[in-house]
Request: fold
Amino acid sequence: MERAFKLAEDIARRDLSDFDSQYRVFTAETKLAGILRHTDPRRALELYDDALQRLRQSSRRTAEPGRNEVATLTASTYPLRRLGRTAEAESGSILYSNG
Reply:
């Protein structure tokens, strides 16, 4: 998964406005974060945060990013809880809060 993420990220850097390549990175990041949330919650939270930023900066605005955003925010509550940041997880204030 890490290799897929790195490959997708390298391609996405070439054209930041290409939704398809950005979405591939988003997909790889969220899958990797889902795996890491059990063993490395801090890294998982970093991946979720970057995935959300990438999704929001995407040039294509459809209903799909909204659903993906909700799913990613929901998934990010698990590493927040493992890190003892329960209040953030419950309040939904997890955006851009890797602290």
